[in-house]
């Protein structure tokens, strides 16, 4: 599979250099982060990862000393001291560990194979390898066990906070129709309702704040200056990111035409390899990236909706008027939004309109974040 990754990266470099995608030149891009996601990249051989990292950095004229954040997701069961050292030598400088819970029953109901001891051992190994400022752990609240006994979540959170890490990702369990969990649980009866989940979330925000972890995105908390660059760039929405590999999503902008494209790569690894090989053999067929199963030109309306949907998840950043102008130079809050609606939402404490010297920003308050979908629908209604 490594060879396939390298083929796709080479193809991307050629397209970017020849203005076939971005309508400009490769030098206008700055590489900020590389993220190995999907839950199990730690099962990859470190040497394979090193080749991919080196190739990616070289594309943008970067070296390991240039401060590019290079993150990897890992499950506790896949973390071994020797292998993690090898990943560090390969170029990984940040690791996110999928702990999910510090309660045995919760881990079992989530189908996780690791134990609490495995998770704590993995965190210790990662801390010794990367340092505590370069580790994050994922935890999940809103589980069935939390409905009747909220203290289970509170204890898990307390354990995580006692580790004195610089970053935590704390997600509410969401269950999609057609999934294994949807068949296992009656969402309305088995899981915390909206009010119960809201209490858990508010408690989470307050406890994190007490321990010096500020919420910089709905599900992400960090000490000042320790935010994940990948998360920030992703949620800001206006930045490009190249998605490579099975199931990867991406966004690419043609800076001449202001056209923005959404890309989705083939999901199953074996199908993805086959798709790349087929496209290599039929190179005359137009394709933004080898391995794509879907390429969609986003309308201006879709880009604006995405900008608000993503940006308002960040209570400090919000959505700036300048980011609107990146979509269309003629756009402004005044032209796009209903002034009366903005005033109503401000008066009810859902948003704040912040005026700066050369810009304006709309940020969601805690009340607004708790009803974000409704807030965005009202904000964009004419």
TrEMBL record:
Residues 1-214 form the Radical SAM core domain. SUPFAM superfamilies: Radical SAM enzymes. CDD domains: Radical_SAM. GO terms for molecular function: 4 iron, 4 sulfur cluster binding; coproporphyrinogen oxidase activity. Keywords: Mitochondrion. SMART domains: Elp3 (SM00729). GO terms for biological process: porphyrin-containing compound biosynthetic process. Transmembrane segments: none annotated. It comes from the Eukaryota. GO terms for cellular component: mitochondrion. InterPro entries: Coproporphyrinogen-III_oxidase, Elp3/MiaA/NifB-like_rSAM, HemW-like, rSAM, rSAM_sf. Belongs to the anaerobic coproporphyrinogen-III oxidase family. HemW subfamily. May be a heme chaperone, appears to bind heme. Homologous bacterial proteins do not have oxygen-independent coproporphyrinogen-III oxidase activity. Binds 1 [4Fe-4S] cluster. The cluster is coordinated with 3 cysteines and an exchangeable S-adenosyl-L-methionine. This is Radical S-adenosyl methionine domain-containing protein 1, mitochondrial.
């Amino acid at each position: 599979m490594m060879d396939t990754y390298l083929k796709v990266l080479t193809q991307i470099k050629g397209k970017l250099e020849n203005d076939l995608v971005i309508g400009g030149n490769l030098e206008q891009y700055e590489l900020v982060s590389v993220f190995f996601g999907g839950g199990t990249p730690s099962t990859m051989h470190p040497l394979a990862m090193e080749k991919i990292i080196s190739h990616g950095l070289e594309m943008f004229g970067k070296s390991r000393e240039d401060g590019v954040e290079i993150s990897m997701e890992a499950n506790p069961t896949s973390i071994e001291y020797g292998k993690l050292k090898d990943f560090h030598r390969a170029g990984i400088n940040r690791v996110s560990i999928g702990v999910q819970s510090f309660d045995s029953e919760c881990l079992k109901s989530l189908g996780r194979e690791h134990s609490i001891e495995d998770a704590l051992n993995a965190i210790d190994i990662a801390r010794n390898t990367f340092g505590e400022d370069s580790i994050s752990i994922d935890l999940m609240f809103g589980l069935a066990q939390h409905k009747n006994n909220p203290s289970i979540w509170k204890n898990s959170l307390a354990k995580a906070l006692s580790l004195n890490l610089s970053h935590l990702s704390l997600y509410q369990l969401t269950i999609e129709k057609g999934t294994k969990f949807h068949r296992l649980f009656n969402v309305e009866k088995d899981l915390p309702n909206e009010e119960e989940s809201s209490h858990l979330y508010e408690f989470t925000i307050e406890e994190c704040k007490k321990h010096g972890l500020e919420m910089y995105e709905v599900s992400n908390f960090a000490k000042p200056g320790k935010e994940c660059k990948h998360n920030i760039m992703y949620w800001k929405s206006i930045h490009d990111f190249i998605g490579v590999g099975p199931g990867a999503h991406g966004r690419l902008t043609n800076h001449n035409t202001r056209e923005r494209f959404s890309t989705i790569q083939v999901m199953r690894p074996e199908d993805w390899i086959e798709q790349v090989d087929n496209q290599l053999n039929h190179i005359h067929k137009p394709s933004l990236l080898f391995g794509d199963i879907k390429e969609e030109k986003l309308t201006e309306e879709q880009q604006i909706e995405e900008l608000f949907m993503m940006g308002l998840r960040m209570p400090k950043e919000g959505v700036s008027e300048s980011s609107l102008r990146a979509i269309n130079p003629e756009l402004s809050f005044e032209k796009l939004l209903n002034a009366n609606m903005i005033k109503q939402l401000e008066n009810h404490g859902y948003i704040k309109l912040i005026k700066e010297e050369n810009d304006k920003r709309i940020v969601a308050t805690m009340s607004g974040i708790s009803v974000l979908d409704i807030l965005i629908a009202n904000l964009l209604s004419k």
